[in-house]
Design goal:
Layout lengths: L1 H25 L9 H16 L5 H10 L8 H23 L4 H22 L4 H23 L14 H18 L6 H10 L7 H23 L4 H22 L5 H29 L5
Helix pairs in contact: 1-4, 1-9, 2-3, 2-4, 2-10, 3-11, 4-9, 4-10, 5-7, 5-9, 6-11, 7-8, 8-9
């Protein structure tokens, strides 16, 4: 059954890649003015550590803003499009080496993909200040979840490799919501890991579930972002290339690192980015005189 799941994932990814490449080629003469070197390096770094469980959306957002590589308005679409192929590579790696009960895995993956399809159509049309406000709050929540994990506030999980009954229904509904939120640039890893732990599953199960969820929802959401033109083409292509290299080095060469200190650093960076996003949203609100609802 896992082979069939991976076959579907491969087909989705090929469809996305065709749409993405055709769009980049169509606009090859008017790509953005950002730096190939910088966006590729960002992709390599963030997806390298993403493979080790850090998560890539929040760090990528922080680095894109720090090096002024794209506009806030297109960050959600850029994150989804740019990280699709690296995350699919991660999913193939982890879904083949860590066993998960098929019904649980398929149910949660399908829910995330459906949530992304619904969410992308909404997010791609939102005003910039709403994007800034949403991402600012989301990044703050992500930083809190990572902090809670560090200090032992999050549940420690169990040893189950699957769910049934009410827990399974709850997990599917929750992953639908997380899939929709991810299209706004809200990383799925931290909340999905918290969900897995909360439901008493083995901590290792979080990797194929969260990476598989992202891998299934991202081609779906990213096709919509591409068709809407709501992403940075040059940054997305650079991050894709650098990110794919980072994933394979992390998975097959490095495999594990002492990430405790790095984890605290990432929390600090995410919190800082959250504050800057909220400040930007506040300034936009002051200039427009329109409330953020």
């Amino acid at each position: 059954m896992i082979t069939a799941v991976l076959g579907v994932l491969a087909a989705l990814t090929i469809c996305f890649a065709i749409v993405f490449i055709k769009d980049v080629v169509k606009h090859k003469n008017n790509l953005e003015s950002n730096s190939w070197v910088k966006v590729s390096a960002i992709g390599f770094i963030t997806n390298f550590f993403d493979t080790l469980g850090i998560g890539s959306f929040a760090p990528t957002t922080a680095l894109l803003k720090a090096f002024k590589q794209t506009k806030d308005r297109v960050i959600p679409g850029t994150l989804n499009v740019a990280c699709t192929i690296p995350v699919v590579a991660e999913a193939f790696i982890f879904m083949t080496v860590i066993k998960v009960e098929p019904i649980t895995l398929i149910g949660m993956l399908a829910a995330a993909a459906l949530g992304a399809w619904v969410g992308a159509g909404i997010v791609s049309k939102l005003p910039e200040r709403i994007i800034q406000f949403t991402m600012g709050v989301a990044l703050f929540i992500t930083a809190f979840l990572m902090f809670a994990s560090k200090v032992g506030w999050m549940p420690g999980g169990g040893d189950a490799i699957g769910l049934e009954g009410g827990k399974l229904i709850f997990a599917i509904v929750a992953n639908f919501v997380l899939g929709a939120l991810m299209t706004a640039g809200i990383g799925l890893y931290a909340p999905c890991m918290a969900l897995v732990y909360f439901l008493g599953m083995s901590p290792n199960i979080a990797f194929p579930i969260m990476m598989g969820s992202c891998a299934f929802l991202m081609p779906v959401a990213s096709i919509k972002f591409v068709k809407e033109g709501a992403y940075d083409r040059k940054a997305s292509l650079g991050i894709t290339i650098g990110g794919a290299i980072g994933v394979f080095i992390a998975a097959y060469i490095v495999k594990s690192l002492p990430l405790n200190i790095l984890g605290w650093l990432v929390i600090g960076v995410i919190l800082y980015t959250s504050i800057t996003m909220l400040k930007s949203a506040s300034k936009a609100h002051s200039k427009s005189g329109v409330a953020i609802e």
